[in-house]
Amino acid sequence: MQMGKGKWRLYIVFLITIATLVGLENAANAAPESRTSYEGLNYERIEDTSLTTRPLWTAPLDQVSDDLQLSKGIIAIGHGYAYVIQNGKLAALQVQNGKQTWTFGNYLRAPLLYHKGTVYVSSDKGDIYAVDAKNGKKRWVSAKPTTNSRRYIIDRDQLFALNGDIQAYNIKDGKFQWRESYSEQLPVEIVATDELILAQNNVSGAYSYDQLHAFDRKTGKEKWNLGQQLLPFRIEGNTALSVKTATLLDHNSLPTLHTLNLQNGKIINTVQYNPENIAESAESYGYGRGDFWVHDNRLYVGLGSKVYGYPLNTAPSVANQDVYKPDGDENERYAAGPYDGRLYFTTNSRLLGVKLANKSTVYYSGLTNPIARFELIGHGIYVAQTDGILVVIHTQTAKPVLRLATFGKVFGPTLRDEGIILVQTKGKLLAFKEPASVK
Hints:
The longest helix is centred in the first third of the chain and has 25 residues, at 5-29. A hairpin with a 2-residue loop joins β7 and β8. The radius of gyration is 31 Å and the shape is globular. Residues 10-29 have low confidence and may be disordered. By secondary structure, it is mainly beta. It has two helices and 37 strands. 7% of the residues lie in helices and 44% in strands.
């Protein structure tokens, strides 16, 4: 087909117009978009369904009044049984199958304690019962009640009921021995020695400070007290290691460890720790009080995202110092260990380990939600997540081996008895077989 010159001109103008419009559209598409949208982890996390297990059995539990008591544990285990409170009764459940063997009493409540074939439990009125763990028969009831006990501790031949006060009973017959003489409330943690019961509380006044108390374990009379001192973490004969704490007037810039004479509460020795040799004049001078503990004759000091290790009973100025810190940012904090050759750190959203042998970092996989708590049992890390999923991770391979849906949000300690793992949640006890790979 032939065109005249006029028609060719019109056709060329048409093509130029089309090209211009297309160019304008492409230019508009290439312009920066407004920053009103963000896309992050926008995908479904597919979990290995082969790891999912169901409980071997479950059992109802009477709920306790607060989460703190649940976090300390509301059942007891021993003799192949789980001892629980159901409808106000003490019940013995076989850990292998959850079958009930016997029940005892009425109007009973947590906490429970199992010790050498006897289960200890109290009533709503505060009577303490000692019950034969095999047959559920009463051995004795306490001669004097103690209301709202939060914890029981047995040391030697004494049972201590803790409820803000400390009450001592003879474990053979339940005879009341004493209530400690201190007028203020005490936390439900104590340390027992041959002659003393040690407790620590916080005293409020013009300023607050921690105070360590020593009570005669025969009479409950206070023998001495010492301010700015935590409950000892190690006892050796008549001496104890205890951390000094700060006050408004004494900032305690360096972690300070005291050796105490338990006979009179006097400070025998003072050691300060400055592992990075921070100059006192530095703007960031100071670490806080630090977290101290002893394992295999080594002293560990947790400071922020790092843990420092020293030979026990060696001055830090002359000791060979080990530093354990996971790779990454400064948000990780020490959580547990040493255990299975590792120290464990967490941000509550992830879990890492640092090997004691070479200080390398181990990244534990399998977590999908923040950590509510975890226990180290065998070669397993039993992580209870805030979404109610319990994840079992191998301490050595760092990989998950099992997942269990509990539908709980708050957990007591995960326990093991005769190859069965027991999980405490609000109103429910769940049991499953310990994974063979982590035994």
